[in-house]
Amino acid sequence: MVKKRLVAALAAFALAAGAGCDPKGAGGRAGTAPAAGGAKKAGTIGLSVLTMNNPFFKEIADSLAAEAAKHGYEVTAVSGDFDVAKQQNQVKDFIVRKVAAIVLCPCDSKSIASAVREANAAGIPVFTADIACLDPSAKVVSHIATDNKQGGRMAADAIVEALGGKGKVAILDHAMVESVMLRTQGFDERLAEIHKERPDVKIEVVVRLPGGGDKAKSFQTTQDLIQAHGDLNGIFAINDPSALGARAALEAAGKADTIKIVGFDGQPEGKRAIRDGKIFADPVQFPDRIGVTTAQAIVKYMNGETVPKEILIPTALYRQKDAQQDPALK
């Protein structure tokens, strides 16, 4: 009797184990396996960002990983360090590892196309976050980013406000990436509109110099800038590291009170500088929303749903009064 019960128990166990190995699972995708918390392991997402030294991209990576984990995906995040060749090799590694999807914040919006095409050939879907790939021969499922052109327009409004409608302005640029191209395009377009709407406004962009999107490089560029343009009144810096580098250079030259800075991003350090009157304003981005939305787009695509080719997240203009009321800065 005991022997019969043991045989029956073993048979039941084998049946249950067999059901658990069903490749489809309980309505799941093929090849998935249970993960912590009852979620199914859906695969790995490979993410390569422009740089992990910029908190903006770190927040994209962290929020993407947190949201993806809710759906059973693990995220492997690496830094391209502004080096497109390094980023191309990272994509090759993702392909060898047979990741489920690849997310890129390209180091170069054009040169990254060859790596995207390699992923296409391997059948791995590619998504871009914050920075787009500009080569149409490279297939990207969806691009999720800040509405950078809108943010650039806000920056133009802010520089006019900061200078009282009159003055000479420089742009600390980083024209290698698509997001910055859109920011400066929006800035130029809005400034042209303001000049037509308000003849009293006399803002002139006198120079555009590469700041590399980097604090140290923008410090050096601003030093050169103020030597060549002693009558400069304002700077539009395309991100917070650029704005902070410019501010440090102005302080070192004793010009911090005479040249106004408008940045872009809304990183904590940038917001503190706005609160302290060191930067006039920022069109702020929401990197956490970019990361979460990118993860959600991947999950929808994997589930066979239609995903928009582009998803833009609006910016908001952040001034000193906003920083003074910001609970995150208390």
Structure characterization notes:
With 330 residues, the protein is an alpha/beta fold. It folds into 2 domains: 41-145 and 287-313, Rossmann fold (3-Layer(aba) Sandwich), CATH 3.40.50.2300; 148-286 and 319-324, Response regulator (Rossmann fold, 3-Layer(aba) Sandwich), CATH 3.40.50. It is built from 11 helices and 14 strands. The strands form 4 sheets. The chain has a 6-stranded parallel β-sheet with strand order 4-3-5-6-7-13, sandwiched between helices. The longest helix is centred in the middle third of the chain and has 20 residues, at 178-197. The radius of gyration is 25 Å and the shape is elongated. It starts with a helix and ends in a 6-residue tail after the last helix. Mean pLDDT is 89; it is low at 1-38.
Task: Identify the notable features of this structure and list them briefly.
six-stranded parallel beta sheet; 2 domains; Rossmann fold; elongated; 330 residues; 11 helices; alpha/beta; four-stranded parallel beta sheet
Beta-strand percentage range: 15-25%
Return the CATH class of the largest domain.
Alpha Beta
DSSP helix fraction: 40-55%
Mean pLDDT: 89
Distance between the termini: 73 Å
The SSE order reads HEEEHEHEHEEHEHEHEHEHEHEEH
Total domain units: 2
Q: What is the structural class?
A: alpha/beta
Q: Report the sheet with the most strands, covering strand number, pairing sense and barrel closure.
A: 6 strands, parallel
What is the name of the CATH architecture of the largest domain? Answer: 3-Layer(aba) Sandwich
Cα shape: elongated
